[in-house]
Amino acid sequence: MASSAYSDFDVIAQEERVRDEIAASSELVSDPLPTSVLLDEYKENKDAFRDKLKDVTSKYDSFRRVRGDGNCFYRAFGFALLQQILHRGTEEQARKLYQQAVASKALLVAQGYTEYTIEDFYDSYVEVIALATGFPKPPAAYDYSTGIPVPVQQDANSEPPKQLPWPLTAQERALRESNLLAIFRDDPVASAVVYYLRLLTAGHFKTNAEFFQGFIEDGLTVSEFCAREVEVMARECEQVHIVALSAALDVPVRVVYTDSSDSTSQATEINFQEEGTAAPTVSLLYRPGHYDILYAR
Amino acid sequence: MFRRKQAPTSAAVSSSSSSGGVNHPAQAIARVKKEYVECQSDEGMKSCNIKLSLVEDSFVKLRGEIPGPLGTPFEGGVFQLLIDIPQNYPFNPPIVKFETKVWHPNVSSQTGVICLDILKDQWAAAMTLRTVMLSIQALMSTPEPDDPQDAVVANQYRSNREEYNRTAKYWTDVYARPGVSEDDVKIKQLMDMGFDEAKCKTALAKAKGNVEQAIEHLFA
Fold it and tell me: How far, in Å, CA of B152 to CA of B109, rounded?
């Protein structure tokens, strides 16, 4: 506002500087680290927080840091999901995840999103899903390279792209994991994948508006809530977002909560979408305001 | 389609006001092209007479044109907007401001900077330049004096609506009349000081378009 000493644009510029500083000092997704690193990080803490971290290290031996830029939940979820499907998924799970990814754009368009505004994000998402499942990337319907959408002519005689035999070989999995990590560390592709996960979350809120309305405060409608709290990059998530995304993809998510409240010395685990069938469980570590990826012992 | 390519450095990403386009990732440019093409055939924009055009064919600087909404003090005016595409578009909002001077609580009367939530923290990557233009037109119809950009205008809007309407209409007539050139605006400015049109034109020509020098000539 013009009436205060700092304009909104000053605030935005300041926020951008903070984000740039965070970006310069941390990777979008780190290499795996032993969970004991967390104990060292908080060795000054003598409270229940450290006890809970000890509890975490007893059950999980490693973790990956995810950049704290407001997108950490989506980024952590996305990378952990693809890694789980690549290394531990069954063929049936891979097919389910792949098929729902391919079908998702039409569902979002049916909910009112404009196709050409979500197309790029969809393409990036399908690309990483194809990479993690070994299923072929579906041919593009339009060529947008010039900015002018031109329907892509499919050659009727050409063989459809082949699916790799499942399970993938260890060598194939290792190669694909390093490619996935490269994509997740590379903006703007990484942002596109994160943003598509936001859209899938918003889409689930909207298709189940009646259910979710009860969780939304401030008198907002589900659409208004999505516009403010889901579809905006860098907006942090709450539990209800986790409920929505894990249900949208039918992926079980376990969040291990740590904080300094001393009612218990054990980290609290909450399972979202317990019966999820599209992937093995994705485990995330929560420290107040932030999510990282956890790997069980 | 988002292709993997060399990632921009964080320094490049942060300078959001760059106009060159050489530092913009191909993804950002492709997205703007797509939006630009869609806008040219968009019925909603056509019916509102909203136009979007390129500045120097670069796709990182564009110009918008919005007719003043009917039934507002902006009616009859045509308002030009300058649009800068940041490097991390569409994840960050376009930088949009009025080039045409406008008297409106949510627009700086000095700089043309606009106070609109979707140009700031409510921007979503699924929004487009079309969304922005339509929202700015809606803002012209419905000012939000509680979230002002220009405190003076906002105060006037709240305390003396008649005077606000008069001033806004006067600014529309002076600055936003279609077909009015920059020189016409300057001549009007000089004529408002009590000089006749012919003298003002001569003075402005002598001063090579510099209003302050023209004033000196007139008073000399």
Answer: 9
